[in-house]
User: Which sequence fits this backbone?
């Protein structure tokens, strides 16, 4: 038996949904009276893990080892909890191999206080169930957040892409009820949020019944949030091409608060590879979908995900991915080398691509994506837009915020965190922009 912890630290890895889950776990522990501190002083460290990245499981064990070594030098032994998708996938194996105190999956973290109490009483506590009852009703109300906040509205996936573990670690697609989402959105705004990003593994698959009992899709939810006083901006991610409805496309035309940014993963440019991935779109249907979006919102910033080196991918098929990138002109994108996930169909496929070939392809792809991101940033120079100030910059008087197109913007201003400031975009680099007062465009033109 050990004394129950009085302080905690949450370290989250991976996607925005993990960031949201990490925030909720922190709020849950704070509601129990624990104090948030740095990892080097915490009596409870929660590692909120992601299973998407390469060698994710081994990295968790390495983190546990480094954490124990650093604490041992201080004469401490913090309680360690492993949460998230690696916890779901590994379960009891983490206890056996790393001797951690708590293992909790992403659908059960509302039980974390009880698991910590059980571990303090003696022995490891493990909960990787996927209960039918929603965890969200057991979480505390949102009390204080930054100017931009995440709100999970949908979890799980029914698509079963052959490379992906999400259906196994997060379960089937589930939409949170309308009222629950709207209530949390109101509490986020009351707690300081000016911008809300709706989250889901396939967020645009969200459906629910509104107050009148009418079935609504994500576009209906966005239109309801548009009427929420105090909320200035709405975003959503991650979307699946198969669930991109005309109603949602039209919302980009009609809803001023919905920002001109769309993350729509394609994964590859080759139809054969897309079929092997079990994606429900092909190259031409994906491009037609982008055309429909751009028709209603010409200034939209497009983002995507790419996997290089999927089993059997040839040089010619990779060239098709490069040509798709050249056709679209992404404002942002994420790209990764394929890495097998145990239990997924792709892990057993023949013709695994050599690591050296994957390295070369990834470098070529990222060079093209970086080129296009810089070109998009340069294309916005000279525009005046609202920037949401999110935090202080590194220089005196400098603040950092986000443009409507999700670009980082550095500016000198007396505005505070959470303010929306009218800004002229005056210069662009590969990863961020510089902004100034609207009248600074005259000086820029005169140069």
Assistant:
């Amino acid at each position: 038996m050990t004394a129950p912890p009085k302080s905690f630290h949450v370290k989250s890895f991976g996607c925005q949904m993990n960031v949201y889950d990490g925030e909720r776990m922190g709020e849950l522990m704070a509601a129990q009276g624990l104090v948030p501190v740095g990892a080097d002083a915490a009596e409870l460290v929660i590692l909120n893990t992601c299973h998407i990245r390469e060698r994710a499981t081994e990295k968790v064990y390495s983190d546990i080892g480094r954490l124990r070594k650093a604490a041992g030098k201080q004469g401490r032994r913090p309680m360690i909890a492993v949460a998230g998708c690696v916890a779901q996938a590994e379960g009891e194996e983490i206890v056996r191999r790393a001797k951690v105190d708590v293992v909790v999956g992403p659908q059960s973290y509302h039980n974390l206080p009880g698991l910590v109490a059980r571990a303090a009483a003696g022995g490891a506590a493990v909960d990787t169930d996927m209960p039918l009852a929603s965890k969200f009703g057991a979480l505390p109300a949102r009390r204080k957040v930054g100017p931009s906040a995440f709100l999970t509205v949908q979890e799980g996936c029914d698509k079963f892409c052959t490379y992906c573990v999400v259906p196994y670690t997060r379960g089937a697609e589930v939409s949170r009820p309308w009222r629950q989402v709207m209530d949390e959105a109101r509490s986020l705004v009351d707690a300081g949020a000016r911008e809300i990003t709706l989250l889901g593994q396939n967020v645009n698959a969200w459906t629910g019944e509104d107050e009148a009992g009418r079935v609504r899709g994500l576009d209906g939810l966005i239109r309801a949030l548009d009427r929420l006083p105090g909320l200035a901006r709405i975003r959503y991610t991650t979307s699946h091409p198969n669930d991109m409805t005309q109603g949602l496309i039209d919302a980009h035309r009609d809803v001023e608060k919905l920002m001109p940014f769309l993350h729509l993963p394609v994964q590859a440019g080759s139809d054969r590879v897309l079929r092997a991935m079990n994606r429900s779109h092909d190259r031409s249907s994906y491009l037609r979908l982008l055309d429909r979006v751009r028709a209603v919102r010409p200034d939209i910033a497009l983002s995507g995900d790419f996997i290089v080196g999927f089993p059997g991918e040839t040089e010619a098929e990779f060239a098709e991915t490069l040509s798709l990138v050249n056709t679209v002109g992404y404002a942002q994108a994420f790209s990764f080398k394929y890495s097998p996930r145990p239990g997924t169909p792709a892990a057993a496929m023949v013709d695994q691509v050599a690591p050296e070939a994957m390295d070369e392809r990834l470098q070529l792809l990222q060079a093209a994506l970086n080129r296009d991101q810089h070109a998009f940033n340069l294309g916005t120079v000279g525009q005046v837009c609202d920037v949401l100030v999110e935090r202080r910059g590194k220089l005196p008087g400098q603040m950092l915020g986000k443009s409507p197109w999700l670009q980082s913007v550095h500016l000198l201003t007396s505005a505070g965190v959470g303010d929306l400031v009218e800004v002229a975009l005056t210069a662009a680099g590969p990863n961020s922009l510089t902004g100034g007062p609207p009248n600074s465009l005259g000086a820029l033109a005169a140069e």
